[in-house]
Design goal:
heterodimer; A: two-stranded antiparallel ribbon; 8 helices; 7% strand; elongated; B: mainly beta; six-stranded antiparallel β-sheet; 7% helix; globular
């Protein structure tokens, strides 16, 4: 029986094996997570997610973000977290996209910034929304703070009063990461990240150990 | 939108047919159980306020039949002179749709048993159509479904006359400055009032009179933040955080045809529990997670739909805010009808024989 030799078959086999290994090592998920991080930062800052506008008062209370229509410096702290270094509890191939570190505090910007919040706490406040009472002991402190620090007012809590019947300063949820993730999938950006990663493997950007060299690959083809 | 037939009256044709209100096996705690005992060909007639059904798309109801070992048609449901036959079904709730766009003003539906002994359950009987308020229907359905118990009650320490602008409470433990309270005189009169401070000042004067010792229950109302008073503490708020686009075409089958329908994108709904007391937030959230949590069912435009949890987040008292837990869901409103599919009920062919040929 005559054997059949298919030119380049071994190279294709090596590439597919390499692809399987790389996917199994969480490389693909990391590429997707990195793509999502860039996508989320761009979409949120660009105002394309139709997030609710922050009022001047609430933006002021959380520190002076520029511009007030997005989440300010928070965007720079969107991270990607993998298993090895940061999260031993995560499964082997799991990469967390849109992760906010829980140890870093948001720095004071100026004399009016009082927040000692951690980055992930600020992100959580955005996602859940919140209510701050304007009555009772807590409310008195809130109104006094606004009266003391709000630009344009001289001083004193008498300058700031809650309107009749309004017991809370209400901030509605702005779950920017969930919306960004939805758009990331719907827009095809996730598929594009996957395709790009596979292309990079086959273009030898991520060679497997012991695989043939690029020169050999081209010769065989 | 969905509307139940109003002022329904259930009238049997004979003593062998008995209808009763049932809450044990029901979708909305108010189903009808109809039992035929040696009642072959006897009927149950449902009459209601006249409705011009051609203004709507479908008659919708849930039907369940107790198991029988009988082949063939077991009963018929007659609407506008048209009989719809039903064979043996598994004992569970089956959603039945009848295209009513060609039916005029109607006041009756008749159910006829074709066998001696039969038991049927019917629930959520009404008519529906899709409108551009489909998202509001979703929010209203969520609001109607979620019910949480704060678990705090006390009594009035003094009488409250009609028009009272404040009430006196025996205990203010876990009562907050803007709590919603239900006053109950124990004789059938209840009234919901809203505090402006926990000492008992009210937002609005009382409509009814209550006596010292009457029960006061703290409510955790479920409210939509665009339409309802959003100030109570505690509160279970329902708010929209996203609206997505997309098209997903399905085929919906009726007893008398079918229709191509299209979903136009889901609604992102955030349900949050917010209270001054962190202990109560934890308690209410455990109740929510037990009763609704990962997946719950609700009636949306007369149809039971499943709602799945996407994410949840807890936020503590960080900047003087109330503790809160938020649950995020994606819910599809009812689909729009694209076009109807009318079944061919009869087909006749004329065959003519010509010498030496056969022509259809």
């Amino acid at each position: 029986m005559t054997s059949i030799y298919i030119k380049g078959l071994e190279a294709v086999r090596a590439d597919i094996t390499n692809l399987v290994i790389k996917v199994g090592e969480s490389g693909l998920n990391r590429a997707r997570a990195n793509a999502f991080q860039k996508y989320a930062e761009k979409e949120i800052a660009g105002g394309t997610l139709a997030l609710r506008t922050i009022s001047a008062a609430t933006a002021f209370m959380r520190g002076d973000h520029e511009p007030i229509n997005d989440t300010g410096e928070l965007l720079k702290h969107i991270k990607v977290r993998g298993r090895k270094r940061k999260a031993p509890a995560l499964k082997k191939n799991v990469i967390e996209a849109g992760y906010f570190t829980n140890s870093k505090k948001y720095p004071k910007r100026d004399e009016y910034s009082t927040t000692n919040l951690k980055i992930n706490q600020i992100a959580t406040l955005h996602h859940t929304g919140y209510r701050i009472p304007t009555t009772g002991e807590k409310g008195r402190k809130v109104l006094a703070y606004l009266g003391k620090h709000l630009k344009g007012f001289n001083s004193g809590e008498s300058r700031v009063k809650a309107s009749s019947g309004r017991q809370f300063i209400q901030v509605k949820p702005r779950p920017f990461l969930y919306k960004a993730a939805q758009r990331f999938a719907e827009s095809g950006a996730d598929t594009k990240a996957i395709n790009q990663y596979v292309d990079d493997i086959f273009s030898k950007k991520y060679p497997a150990k012991g695989s043939i060299s690029s020169a050999d690959y081209e010769e065989n083809m | 939108m969905f509307v139940e037939f109003e002022n329904q009256t259930w009238t049997p044709s004979d003593a062998s047919v008995v209808a009763s209100v049932n809450s044990d096996f029901s979708i909305d705690n108010n189903s009808r159980k109809i039992v035929w005992t040696e009642g072959i060909n006897q009927t149950m007639t449902i009459t209601f306020d006249s409705v011009l059904l051609s203004d709507y798309e479908e008659i919708s109801f849930y039907l369940s039949q107790s198991s029988v070992i009988t082949p063939g048609d077991l009963y018929t449901i007659t609407v506008d002179g048209e009989d719809y036959s039903f064979t043996n079904m598994v004992h569970k709730w089956n959603h039945i749709l009848i295209d009513c766009s060609g039916i005029g003003a109607t006041t009756t539906i008749v159910i006829t048993s074709l066998i001696d002994d039969l038991t049927l359950f019917i629930d959520v009987l009404g008519y529906r159509r899709t409108s551009h308020n489909a998202d509001i229907d979703v929010l209203q359905a969520v609001k109607n479904t979620i019910s949480l118990s704060y678990g705090v009650s006390t009594t009035l320490s003094a009488n409250a006359a009609v028009g009272a602008t404040s009430i006196s409470l025996n205990s203010t433990a876990y009562i907050n400055n803007s709590s919603a309270l239900e006053l109950d005189d124990g004789a059938g009169t209840t009234e919901i009032v809203y505090l402006t401070n926990k000492q008992g000042a009210l937002q609005s004067a009382t409509v009814n009179a209550f006596s010292s010792g009457d029960t006061v229950t703290v409510l955790c109302p479920t409210v939509m933040d665009d339409y309802d008073n959003i100030e109570p503490d505690p509160i279970c708020g329902v708010t929209v955080y996203d609206m997505q686009t997309g098209t997903d075409v399905i085929t919906e089958h009726f007893e008398n045809g079918a229709a191509k329908k299209v979903y136009t994108g889901s609604l992102g709904v955030c349900i949050y529990i917010d209270c001054s007391s962190k202990k109560k937030v934890l308690q209410l959230s455990r109740e929510f997670q037990f009763k609704y949590g990962d997946c719950f069912r609700m009636l949306l435009d007369g149809e039971q739909v499943s709602v799945w949890l996407e994410e949840s987040r807890f936020v503590d008292d960080l900047i003087g805010n109330n503790p809160r837990i938020a649950y995020y869901y994606e819910i599809e409103p009812q689909p729009y009808t694209v076009h109807k599919i009318v079944p061919i009920t009869s087909l006749s062919l004329e065959v003519e024989t010509v010498h030496g040929e056969t022509i259809l």
